[in-house]
Design a protein that fits this description.
8-stranded mixed sheet; alpha/beta; 13 helices
Length: 549
């Protein structure tokens, strides 16, 4: 009997050793066939540029809380339904502030020369009462160079700021107020490279290497070494808040900030209070116009300007919406693979590279799978977030509502299989980073290796639960596998990021098509696997970052 059992067991092992390689080969061949179809559909029948046209030319800009954003989301929901998605709807979350929509604005220099000014209105600031004219006064709040590093300017004490404001009360009444000094922009520096070489990319993906070993990251925000605080000094935000109140209380007409950017670019954010009653009409002016006005004033020549700034408050904007589209899975339909980007934008341009391109890319990736007849085992869910520009608010609200966190999970938490995100401009995706163990990165790395010809370099794993930068970190923060795409920089941070130059013309069509193809393959991989993407076990979950105090 024992010998018979051993003979049967041996025969089964022989069969297994024969069949398993055949099954593996069949699965590999099947995946290769799907990849071929993905490429063909993504290159020959792409809808991505049409979607980008509607998001930008027709519905841009798409500030959170604005009618443009809601209308863009409704259009995209209808488009996904036309593509055959099983569900496409707007899911509400509470923004908590009324919306604001920019309108028709004019700004002119009347004297000493007539000219048209280039500027953008600061969001959530009030309109002027029709056209207003006035002379310009320069206001530069006092700063003091640090003893350790004179390049670092430290703020005034409350007494110093109050004394300065007292000296300027009469000067600002009924005036256009030029705030601060013109920025010096060095024209001798070389522009940043637009592409990452494969050698540099491979270096960056090597966990044993540091950024400086690989030529440094694509972009570094300026950082100064910390210096000893000036006793009693106010920080920049405190000074700015008091400046807004000072200008409002003393009857200034328009506040003019400077863009501090090159070649006519303007980057305008928002009044941090979201309350138009707490500020005067405010614009951000291009460096070239601001500098010209300042220099004329320094010659004691009066400058007279005219502004007509018209915007409106959208009361319904207190409720915002995430756009959610879905292709229902089959045998594992209660498990979900997500992909997305943020649909909201700033208002200075039409928000093409930040981040209509992210939503269009991920909608296209899911559309490709639907068009080629993939029957996903898991449900594929596309998300186009709002509130990203105000602090990842839409994606945070969604994660909290649907999944909870590692520390306080909801039933859907264990059914989640990964969220792919893209949010760094028009450059094609060159690599990905997944929150999870190395095995998670290895699965995606192996699956996407056939796309090296499109410039894709690989996948790394991260343990960081830091929240910030883009929407994939909302998932990482919760302990879920957020997967962020890293891209060729092109001109994103230096030119289009949040500026008046972020338009449809900045899009590189072959790059966005390549990204959609790569993400379609990645989503297909996770939607069809027998098991969900590996996660950190509960006892190995990285801790939440310590809050800044």
């Amino acid at each position: 009997m024992k010998k018979h059992f051993l003979r049967v067991l041996g025969a089964l092992l022989v069969v297994q050793l024969t069949i398993l390689p055949m099954l593996t080969a069949a699965q590999t061949a099947d995946r290769a066939s799907v990849y071929t179809k993905i490429r063909k559909e993504g290159l020959e029948n792409s809808k991505i540029m049409r979607v980008l046209h509607y998001f930008t030319d027709v519905y841009g800009p798409r500030l959170t809380g604005s009618e443009n954003h809601v209308n863009a989301a409704k259009w995209a929901a209808a488009e996904m339904k036309n593509w055959g998605f099983d569900k496409a709807e707007l899911e509400a979350w509470e923004f908590g502030h009324p919306g604001w929509q920019n309108g028709r604005n004019t700004g002119l220099m009347l004297s000493p020369q007539e000219d048209t000014l280039t500027y953008e209105v600061l969001a959530w600031t009030p309109s002027t009462k029709g056209p207003v004219t006035g002379e310009v006064v320069s206001l530069v709040t006092p700063t003091f160079p640090s003893a350790e590093n004179p390049a670092i300017k430290q703020g005034p004490t409350q007494a110093e700021l109050t004394a300065y404001f007292d000296s300027m009360k009469a000067a600002v009444k009924g005036k256009m107020v030029l705030v601060g000094l013109p920025a010096f922009i060095d024209q001798s520096t070389e522009p940043r490279p637009k592409h990452i070489s494969m050698d540099a990319l491979v270096c960056r993906l090597d966990p044993t290497k540091k950024p400086e070993d690989c030529g440094g990251p694509a972009f570094n925000f300026p950082r100064f070494q910390g210096v000893k605080p000036r006793p009693g000094a106010l920080n920049a935000r405190e000074v700015d808040q008091q400046l807004d109140k000072f200008l409002l209380d003393n009857g200034a007409l328009v506040r003019i900030n400077e863009s501090q950017l090159d070649r006519g670019a303007v980057r305008a954010f928002n009044n941090r209070t979201f309350d138009i009653s707490k500020v005067i009409p405010t614009v951000v002016m291009r460096n070239e116009d601001f500098g010209r006005i300042y220099r004329i004033l320094q010659d004691n020549t009066p400058v007279r300007l005219e502004f007509n700034l018209q915007s409106r408050i959208i009361p319904s904007g207190v409720t915002s919406y995430n756009l959610i589209g879905e292709i229902t899975g089959s045998d594992k339909k209660d498990e979900v693979i997500m992909l997305g980007g943020h649909l909201d934008s700033w208002h200075s341009a039409t928000g093409a590279t930040d981040n209509a391109i992210g939503c269009a890319t991920m909608m296209e990736a899911a559309r490709i799978l639907k068009a080629i007849g993939v029957k996903p085992r898991r449900t594929i869910r596309v998300a186009c977030w709002s509130g990203e520009e105000q602090g990842l608010l839409g994606s945070q609200a969604y994660v909290k509502s649907h999944f909870g966190s590692a520390e306080d999970p909801k039933p859907e938490y264990e059914k989640f299989g990964g969220y792919f995100n893209i949010d760094s401009g028009t450059g094609r995706v060159r690599s990905m980073s997944v929150f999870g163990p190395e095995e998670a990165a290895e699965i995606l790395r192996e699956a996407l290796a056939p796309f090296q010809d499109l410039g894709f370099g690989g996948v790394t794993a991260t343990k960081s639960r830091n929240l910030g930068g883009t929407d994939s970190t909302s998932f990482n923060h919760a302990g879920l596998p957020g997967i962020g795409g890293s891209q060729d920089p092109i001109e994103y941070f230096g030119v289009t990021w949040h500026t008046n130059l972020d338009t449809y013309e900045r899009i590189i069509e072959p790059d966005v098509k390549a990204s959609a193809i790569i993400f379609a393959a990645a989503v297909y991989t996770l939607a069809m696997r027998d098991e969900l993407l590996p996660r950190f076990p509960k006892d190995q979950m990285p801790p939440l970052p310590t809050p800044n105090r």
